[in-house]
Specification:
5-stranded parallel β-sheet; 3 domains; Aconitase, domain 3; 466 residues; Aconitase, Domain 2
Length: 466
């Protein structure tokens, strides 16, 4: 019997019609996640053609991208300030109600960023195919799923048929050996991987992250790594399910229970790639070589160690990025002043991320002139953080404690940075204007972001860690 990769096993199990030279494969989708920004046009298309949603029971909606994180606008009786956001929210509320789709509404205790609530509720399960009109759907691959983002037209296809036309991607194994040094996180690892591969290094491929360093990661950390696979150009990122996965999932509200759990577990244990299964490409790196990282340009591939020096490149995109960021080759980022610190997004807004940032902030103050926003990834994360008193650490230090949502990651909900300001952000994208027109984004881990907030400058977090 042919040895198969995890990707191959999941692909074959969901292939309704195999790919041919003339046509893509028809792939069945187990779970379709929907949010307010990319769904409106798809629902309109279905209405115009008189087509119902094929499997509302396989579709779950939440409000996150355009949703404000200002408590007053959600719970204080103050209207949503941005008309465009209010319109998108209202439209998804109507579409979900008309289609029988479960929606976690504005005041629902389970509402939050789509890639945070799926795993925490147990909706995300090993072996699934999962899609969403958001590129960072790759987050769910941390559970051994084939999860990827789709465009608005494809959102309509899945709503109408629960299937998708797809060409089969190639596979890339990223082996991470060894152990991480003190103060180094999963965000540092994935920035280092993208810096090595380049932003097109994974194009047309599904990445499987492997090795002892990956197996040692928590589920939150695995989600951070898979989340940013798309930033290396990959179609998806995956990590094989193991005891860490099963322990995380056991008892989740939407996870299987009782006899169903035992049956599911037996199937999930067969998912990891067979020993000796062939990948189209393989690369390796040593975790012990990874320091705290930070981006310096306008894509995540332009990342260096926090104490590093911006390299010299002659390509047009690099020179344009240097002009936009007001940096130059040979500059050291450490010590450069920052204006805003953002901790949040589907990359780094889970409870462990907030704990890490709070541990560094405890007993300290945000530097004068620096604005710090802390935005939990879901209302459940917010409640759990408050139960631990983390919100008091943040507010006591001078940070803003917000309601859950995408917030400053995407800058379409009222949370933006002014032009020319430097933002140390735990999000996943740093292209021009991502966090506000003219804003300059530097991607980093929660502890590196917290260190910048305390010092007012880009700082190696290990300098502040006992």
């Amino acid at each position: 019997m042919t040895k198969q990769t995890m990707f191959e096993k999941i692909w074959r199990a969901h292939e309704v019609v195999p790919e041919s030279a003339e046509a893509p494969a028809v792939l069945y989708i187990d779970l379709h996640l929907v949010h307010e920004v990319t769904s409106a046009q798809a629902f309109r298309l279905l209405r115009e053609r008189g087509i119902p949603v094929r499997r509302p029971d396989r579709t779950v909606a939440t409000l996150d991208h355009a949703t404000p994180t200002d408590t007053r606008q959600l719970f204080g009786g103050v209207p949503i300030r941005l008309e465009s956001a209010a319109r998108q929210i209202e439209e998804l509320e109507r579409n979900a109600a008309a289609s029988g789709i479960e929606l976690f509404g504005l005041r629902d205790k389970h509402r939050g960023i789509v890639h945070v609530i799926g795993p925490e509720l147990g909706l995300t399960q090993p072996g699934m195919t999962i899609v969403c009109g958001d590129s960072h759907t790759s987050t769910h691959g941390a559970f051994g799923t084939l999860a990827f983002g789709i465009g608005t037209t494809e959102v309509g296809h899945v709503l109408a048929t629960q299937c998708l036309l797809q060409r089969k991607p190639k596979t890339l194994a990223v082996e991470v050996r060894g152990k991480f040094a003190h103060g180094v996180s999963a965000k540092d690892l994935v920035l280092a991987i993208i810096a090595q591969l380049g932003v097109a290094g994974g194009s047309g491929q599904v990445i499987e992250y492997r090795g002892e360093a990956v197996r040692a990661l928590s589920m939150d950390e695995r989600m951070t790594v898979c989340n940013m696979s798309i930033e290396a150009g990959a179609r998806a990122g995956m990590i094989a399910p193991d005891e860490t996965t099963f322990t995380y999932m056991r008892g989740r509200p939407r996870a299987p229970a009782g006899a169903e759990w035992e049956r599911a577990l037996a199937a999930w244990q067969q998912l990891p790639s067979d020993a000796g299964a062939a990948f189209d490409r393989e690369v390796a790196l040593d975790a012990s070589d990874v320091p705290p990282m930070i981006s310096y340009g306008t894509n995540p591939g332009m990342s260096i160690p926090v104490n590093g020096i911006i390299p010299m490149r002659n390509d047009e995109s690099f020179l344009k990025a240097m002009q936009y960021m007001a940096f130059a080759p040979g500059d050291m980022l450490a010590g450069k002043p920052v204006d805003i610190v953002f901790i949040g997004s589907c990359t780094n807004s889970r409870l462990s991320d907030l704990r890490a940032a709070a541990a560094l902030l405890r007993g300290r103050k945000v530097a004068s002139g620096v604005r710090m926003l802390v935005v939990p990834g879901s209302q459940q994360v917010k409640q759990a953080a408050e139960a631990e008193g983390l919100h008091e650490v943040f507010t006591g230090a001078g940070a803003e404690w917000r309601e859950s949502g995408c917030s400053m990651c995407v800058g379409i909900n009222g949370d933006t940075a002014p032009a020319g300001r430097y933002v140390v952000s735990t999000s996943n994208r740093n292209f021009e204007g991502r966090q506000g027109q003219g804003a300059r984004t530097l991607l980093a881990s929660p502890v590196t972001a917290a260190a910048a907030a305390v010092t007012g400058r880009i700082t190696d977090p290990r300098d502040l860690m006992s």
